[in-house]
Amino acid sequence: MKTLLGRRTRILAATTATAGLVLVAGCSSGGSESGKTTVKGVHLVKAGQLTTCTHLPYPPFQSEINGKVQGFDVSLIDLVAKDLGVKQQILDTPFENFKTGAFLNSGQCDLAAAGMTITAERKKNVDFSDPYFEATQAVLVDKKAGVNSLADVKAKSRKLGAQAQTTGEDYARSKGFDPVSFHSSDAVLNGLRTGQVQAVIIDYPVVQGWLKDKANADAFKVVDNLNTGEQYGFTVKKGNTALREAINKALKQAKADGTYKKLYEQWIGPYNPSAASPSAS
User: Fold this and answer.
1) Is the Cα torsion angle 237, 260, 135, 6 positive or negative in sign?
2) Could you tell me which residues come within 8 angstroms of residue 87 by beta carbon, excluding any fewer than 6 positions away?
3) Which of 95, 122, 177, 197 has the highest count of CB atoms within 10 angstroms of its CB?
4) Contact partners, residue 193, CB within 8 Å, separation at least 6
């Protein structure tokens, strides 16, 4: 997924407008344990809250909407926080720290939720939850570029863009491209819009949302959908079994009671259980 080098960490918490920055969508608090650092066997880095590291923006998984951080990831972690009887607080952080587990290891965050693909390399540094989303990559192009496939992009010497340090960028390099790297998904799409590149590889759910805008749909199109076998997972510090199990429990419950389907349709689109199942890896 995403990276943003040199960016300052931002705490996105429920607060008043005079405090500045933005608001975060938090679940309801409650329970006699809300002021404790260990709740239902789960140790929290800060009492009374579940602190989530993310990297903004990455719609529809997390982005600022109407002054709040909202999205599919946010809604799912709200379920975990609700089960623990605490509030979710979100920290906007550079994506490269998710790959190393730096913010988890330093105790700044309890978990990371950033539409992050589960990979063997990343598993060396962090523990993943059960997968909660099956991801594919889309090849999105400028209609004026005259290309109708990823192969066309190379054959016609068009510029290809991707988000830095993501599986999309890795895939492009594996196919012999030297993609133009952008620091966020918004930057990737803006690079396409402004003609810096004529095609991009980016996660398909991001494209789905972007093409809902008629102006974008009129000018750009998807020419390939790459099934790379990717699954997203939430991450916790290595060895934090209690929190990982709490996340998995919330995911399984959401799947069983229909909440997962409801949230999927709200944020992603039509729900296909065989493609979206948060089953164990």
Assistant:
1) negative
2) 14, 26, 27, 28, 29, 48, 49, 50, 81
3) 95
4) 216, 219, 220
Q: Which residues of 166-203 are buried (b: 16+ CB within 10 A; e: fewer)?
A: bbbbbbbeeeebebbbbbbbbbbbebbeeeebbbbbbb
In angstroms, the CA 29 to CA 206 distance is 31
- Report pLDDT digits (tens) over 94-108: 877 888 899 999 999
Quick check: 160 and 199 in contact, CB under 8 A? yes
Tell me, what DSSP letter sits at residue 71? S
Buried b (16+ CB within 10 A) or exposed e, 212-247: eeeebeeebbebbebeeebbbbbbbbeebeebbebb
| CA-wise closest residue to 137 among 68, 229, 212 | 229
How many Å apart are CA 54 and CA 47, to the nearest integer? Answer: 20
Residue 118: predicted pLDDT: 93
Cα–Cα distance list, 142 to 151, 213, 278 (Å): 15, 15, 34
Listed in sequence order, the residues at least 6 apart from 52 whose beta carbon sits closer than 8 Å to its beta carbon are 74, 77, 88, 89, 90, 91, 109, 110, 111, 112, 113
**Is a pLDDT exceeding 80 seen at residue 126?**
yes
Q: How far apart are CA 63 and CA 118, in angstroms?
A: 21
Supply angle C-alpha 75, 80, 81, rounded to 5. Answer: 90
CA distance 207 to 192: 12
Q: Phi first, then psi: give them for residue 27, nearest 5 degrees.
A: -80, 170
